[in-house]
Write a structure and sequence with these properties.
With about 350 residues, the protein is of the alpha/beta class. The protein is built from 10 helices and 14 strands.
Length: about 350
């Protein structure tokens, strides 16, 4: 019987087990958005995961959505991440960088030179974002022109190449939780009538072309994508996500990606998870729905064949040696949910987090 503690071949990269560190925003970047020694220590502490996936890393200056988040668009940032990847590899770990363009989620005070957040359409998200000046209402983003959409895809490609140059084993494109790729997928944030919107085929185009471009640059075996069908976080409304995500998965499946990372928001998402897993002929990483944080019971999903790898967020924050504790059956430290900013975090795993 296959268990979560068995080694796993991830598109040619050998993982020590089938337990992943889910991406979680850390807000710890130093000057210029470069990782610090504390970043290296944090990820090295969790290198016993079969797969370490970093916090969201912006592929461009305008892609930043929160204070003190790191990028992969400057030489200083590449050098900072090299210290992180070296530290993880020294512990025998495998690490992917999550490339995350926040899109409309952010605020001008977080951006330099008079920049303003951009999006698929000029539709402001309801709610507020945390900034160094306190919470601020989301602003109406500037709609990307067709040429700027292409340029944004190129930013993802450059960031992916920078990730490889920094020593990462691969990258995960963040297509979940209401950030830019998700904003193109969702009908309430993408009101476009050009080739990048309108029909299902139009709304998935940005995600599909970004996947193809990144895979062409660094190799499909080094490229994954994370999705969260129907997830309402960041004012996303996808009342009938099945058609959109089936079309997306069918379009990217021939690329031969390293993995598809599915984040479930609620228990009845499992039916769609099963459908997408059948349509994707590759590794499925699952962050399963739960009443709170993903717990030890999720390991059974590997044994049941629901997923190939299970990703843990909050439990991994509180237990840096989580694979060992899961194998031993505990004990487990409890994550301090007060360290998460705002709202209800039902199993979601990439909210801004302080401390650890």
């Amino acid at each position: 019987m296959t268990t979560a503690f068995d080694p796993f071949d991830l598109a040619g990269t050998q993982l020590a087990n089938r337990i992943a560190l889910a991406p979680m925003t850390r807000n710890r970047a130093g000057e210029g958005g470069a990782p610090t020694e504390l970043t290296a220590e944090y990820y090295a502490q969790r290198a016993s995961a079969g797969l370490v996936i970093t916090e969201g890393v912006q592929p461009s200056v305008v892609g930043q959505g929160y204070p003190s988040t790191p990028g992969l668009h400057s030489q200083e940032q590449i050098a900072g991440w090299r210290r992180v990847t070296d530290a993880v590899h020294a512990k025998g770990g495998t690490i992917f960088a999550q490339l995350m363009h926040a899109g409309r989620i952010g605020h001008p005070v977080l951006l330099p030179d008079g920049l303003t957040p951009v999006g698929a359409s000029p539709v402001a998200a309801a709610g507020q974002v945390f900034t160094q000046e306190g919470p601020k209402d989301f602003v109406t983003p500037r709609e990307l022109t067709g040429a700027e959409v292409r340029a944004t895809i190129a930013d993802f490609v450059t960031a992916a190449r920078n990730a490889v140059d920094a020593g990462f084993d691969g990258v995960e494109l963040h297509g979940a939780n209401g950030y830019l790729i998700h904003q193109f997928l969702a009908p309430n944030s993408n009101l476009r009538t050009d080739e990048w919107g309108g029909s299902v085929e139009g709304r998935i185009r940005f995600a599909v072309e970004t996947v193809r471009a990144v895979a062409a640059e660094i190799g499909a075996a080094r490229t994954g994508i994370r999705i969260s069908p129907g997830n309402p976080f960041n004012d996303i409304d996808e009342p009938a996500p099945a058609a959109t995500y089936s079309a997306l998965v069918q379009a990217i499946e021939p690329v031969g990606l390293a993995y598809l990372h599915i984040l479930e928001g609620k228990a009845d998402d499992r039916e769609l998870t099963a459908t997408l897993s059948k349509e994707f002929n590759g590794t499925v990483v699952l962050n399963p729905a739960s009443d709170g944080s993903t717990g030890p019971e999720a390991l059974a999903l590997v044994e049941q064949g629901v997923a190939d790898v299970i990703s843990y967020g909050a439990l991994f924050l509180a237990n840096p040696d989580l694979p060992e504790r899961l194998r031993a059956g505990g004990p487990f430290n409890t994550a301090d949910r007060d360290t998460f900013y705002g709202g209800d975090h039902r199993g979601y795993t990439d909210y801004p987090v302080l401390g650890a």
